[in-house]
TrEMBL record:
<keyword id="KW-0597">Phosphoprotein</keyword>
<dbReference type="InterPro" id="IPR000253">
    <property type="entry name" value="FHA_dom"/>
</dbReference>
<protein>
    <recommendedName>
        <fullName>FHA domain-containing protein</fullName>
    </recommendedName>
</protein>
<dbReference type="Pfam" id="PF00498">
    <property type="entry name" value="FHA"/>
</dbReference>
<dbReference type="InterPro" id="IPR008984">
    <property type="entry name" value="SMAD_FHA_dom_sf"/>
</dbReference>
<dbReference type="InterPro" id="IPR042287">
    <property type="entry name" value="FhaA_N_sf"/>
</dbReference>
<dbReference type="InterPro" id="IPR022128">
    <property type="entry name" value="FhaA_N"/>
</dbReference>
<dbReference type="Pfam" id="PF12401">
    <property type="entry name" value="FhaA_N"/>
</dbReference>
<dbReference type="InterPro" id="IPR050923">
    <property type="entry name" value="Cell_Proc_Reg/RNA_Proc"/>
</dbReference>
<feature type="domain" description="FHA">
    <location>
        <begin position="146"/>
        <end position="195"/>
    </location>
</feature>
Length: 225
């Protein structure tokens, strides 16, 4: 971090602290997401023409009251924030040296409404896992075929009269995923377009009947996997 970056951070902290003390407004997840993206942008290092490295270990320090309130959201908050970082990195051409390790910590010295991000890098072998989010529930995809449909014999059963018993299939090989319609009555769409079969990109949206399915990739260390 350069001298001007330090000054800017100091001013930002002072302004945030003044507002926090005046309004006592708690930190919201969208503020954390913005701060994390800003941290990646600030710490990005160009190591070659095609490689820009950003930190993969990040800690969000919060006032105790904010920490307790946000911790009640559980792992879903960290999953969403991690997904936001992965999307921002992909759009910006950034690379992580290892799996993302994101955590929240309380800091007695901070005022409600304030947050600080600290970051560093740690190399490690990344293992990708594929998941789908359906109506607030997360399902991990196994290697091979996962069938989604209304029937009880589907691997993932959805409560949707507009879905066929075996509506769509996702095949995950550990690196890439492909979705196929299984001859359903009402068809399957990917990001708003009808499909028979197509490769999936992270954060793709699949619609079957009235059910929306979001495909995501999550990075883990080999030990976590």
């Amino acid at each position: 971090m350069g001298f001007l970056d330090s000054i800017e951070r100091g001013l930002e902290k002072a302004v945030n602290g003044a507002f926090a003390k005046t309004f006592r407004s708690g930190v919201e997840p969208v503020e954390i997401a913005s701060a994390l993206k800003r941290e990646l942008d600030t710490q990005a290092s160009v190591v070659s023409r095609d490689r820009i490295l950003v930190p993969n270990r990040l800690t969000v320090r919060l006032a105790p009251a904010d920490f307790q309130r946000l911790r009640r959201l559980g792992d879903s908050l960290l999953d969403e924030l991690t997904g936001t970082m992965q999307t921002h990195a992909r759009q910006s051409g950034y690379s992580f040296p290892g799996p993302i390790d994101l955590g929240l910590e309380p800091d007695e010295g901070m005022t409600t409404g304030m947050l600080e991000i600290s970051s560093d890098s740690e190399a490690g072998e990344v293992v990708w896992s594929a998941v789908v989010d359906i109506k607030g529930k997360r399902y991990r995809l196994r290697r091979g075929s996962t069938v989604i449909g209304r029937g009880s014999d589907a691997d993932i059963t959805v409560d949707d009269a507009g879905a066929s018993r075996k509506h769509a299939e996702i095949i995950w090989d550990g690196t890439r995923a492909q979705v196929s319609d299984l001859g359903s009555t009402n068809g399957t769409t990917l990001n708003g377009r009808a499909l028979k079969s197509a490769l999936l990109e992270p954060d793709s949206i699949i619609d079957i009947g009235a059910t929306r399915i979001v495909y995501r990739l999550l990075a883990q260390s080999k030990e976590q996997a």
